[in-house]
Fold this sequence. Notes:
CATH architecture of the largest domain: 3-Layer(aba) Sandwich
Number of domains: 3
Strand order of the largest sheet: 12-15-14-13-16-17
CATH superfamily of the largest domain: HUPs
CATH topology of the largest domain: Rossmann fold
Strand content: 25-35%
Order of helices and strands: EHEHEHHEEEHEHHHHEEEEEEEEEE
Distance between the termini: 53 Å
Shape: globular
Helix content: 25-40%
Number of strands: 17
Structural class: alpha/beta
Largest sheet: 6 strands, antiparallel, barrel
Number of helices: 9
Amino acid sequence: MSKHGKVLVAMSGGIDSTVTALMLHEQGYEVVGITMKTWDYASAGASKKETGCCNLDSFNDARAAAVHHGFPHFILDIRDEFGDFVINNFVDEYLAGRTPNPCVLCNTHIKWRALMKRADAMDCAFIATGHYGQIRVENGRGIISKGVDETKDQSYVLWGLDQDVIKRTLLPLGGYRKTEIRQMAFDFGYPELAKKAESYEICFVPDNDYRGFLKRKVDGLEERVNGGNFVLANGKVVGQHKGYPFYTIGQRKGLDIALGRPIFVTEIIPETNTVVLGDEEELNRSEMNVGGINLVKYDHLPEGMEAVVKVRYKDKGTLANLHNTDDLVKVHFYDQVKGIAPGQSAVFYEGDDVLGGGIIRR
């Protein structure tokens, strides 16, 4: 009989998830390791070999660690669950002129639900991952907060988790710094993991060429959208582009246009295949609308509540007021925020706690 109960641990074969499993095993949990295959790179048409969470070597590394420490390990094929939802959304968002965040979508709607389903089948009380964040239950609600190591904090990508999932999730790395986790890998006898490079790529775009991925997924896309207008905010046409889905808000490099000064993508208008360009200050915004809201800390947002809002993963956050308007939250920033991109996640914080989040609308 285990000391703390049975836990299903998502193991990618990397340092964070491996240390998570070994740490919980050492603490007296009955650990079951599971590695999820989300994507088949052969179907992507990319030349680069499989990396990150779908690397065969990583599968073997995860299994080897489990076998060595005496707990079971399974490989779970969720390519069908992943592909229909995450891939289609990724493509649809770019075709709608937005910049998607597929990792958030995958975490909240695919991976955690897949884990919960298998945890129930295996009578596991908990699931665990190697994310750098913290979870506690307070006043009957599961609350996500930032990890101790703010340089590695991943609370931003967990805003979409439902309450039933949060309350059963363990994030044992949240109270440690990455340097401490590397030392733990050494102490557990895995020095090669401590030196293992981390992958920051989108798993189904292993060559980081999302434009090439879109071209392979959507027949005739390049021909259909090529030759739209680059315009300035006043409507003046200053050139032609290669197609609106191939540009993102804030982009400067790769525009292939010279206007005698630094120029940035400030807006994308898919209806007319138009890409609006402007100076850097034209990227500044003082408000935005956020939809698809999921609340974490409270069951409702008090009108006008003050919060720090992050508009991208590495954003330091900006103080703002939150206003409820129908099914949206209107965010009024105290300071100008640069490069707000529709389709990205907006996450609201009260101190270190995640209030909730949603998807930035145009």
